[in-house]
Amino acid sequence: MGMEFSPVANVVMDTTYFGRRFGVMAFKNSLDKKVLLKKYVRNETVRAYLDGIAEIARRGISVQAIVCDGRKGVVQAFPDIPVQMCQFHQVKIVTKYLTKNPKLDAAKELRDIVLRLVDSNEADFTAMLDKWYARWKDLLDERSRNEETGRTFYTHKPLRSAYRSLRNNLFNLFEFEHWRELDIPNTTNALDGQFSDLKNKLRNHNGLSRVRKMRLIDDYFQA
After folding, report:
1. Which of 63, 124, 147, 188 qualifies as a FRET site for 117, CA 20 to 30 Å off?
2. What is the rounded average pLDDT for all residues in the chain?
3. Residue 6: what pLDDT?
């Protein structure tokens, strides 16, 4: 690909799949819009991301920040640099738990809050989340009993999971605010758009073998 990259990078990294166990992991510098590295993977793992960042560093590029989808373990794997979780991925996570049309009033309110995430700052978003929790804490803690086993369980587990996801990820959802001087993007859109474009191109070549698909993908990222 050549070495025309900036010596400093905010690395946007993500993986997309083109078939079962046929994924492409890409690392893009948001500062100069260049793809620094791409590799084929069977599974999206923390180890693969660690190896990718290490390879970029070996090429003499200083990684000053990372933007990722928030996959478990990835944020913790890079304790020495800011790691921004993609806000759109967080919206997807909450939507997975609550659905797009939740029935409970508490779930409807939480979904409305998360849909404001991308346009919010940390202080305002945290205040909305705190206010929601104060109102619905008793509902979150409500438990039901399994009549057969006698064991109790949280009645509204998906709602709890959605809230806990937001609370646990809150700090990393706003790293771009904590480090404004680094110009960190708050989403992985820079890569998501390329992935969508690449899939459209491959869709126009149905029936390609994996080897031919890989050649097309190689050419795409070298363009």
Report:
1. 63
2. 93
3. 56
- Render pLDDT for 74-98 as a digit per residue (tens, 0 to 9): 999 999 999 999 999 999 999 999 9
Half-sphere exposure at residue 144, Cβ-oriented, CA atoms within 13 angstroms: 8
CA torsion, points 49, 86, 90, 116, in degrees to nearest 10? 180
* Cα–Cα distance, 178 to 163 (Å, whole number): 23
9, 82 in Cβ contact below 8 A?
no
Whole-number Å distance between alpha carbons of 137 and 123: 21
23 contact partners, CB below 8 Å, separation of at least 6: 15, 16, 17, 40, 41, 42, 43, 44
Count of C-beta atoms within a 10 Å radius of residue 3: 7
> Chain-centre distance of CA 143, in angstroms?
31
For the segment 102-109, the average pLDDT, to the nearest whole number, is 97
Query: What pLDDT is attached to residue 71?
Result: 87
Q: Is the pLDDT of residue 191 over 80?
A: yes
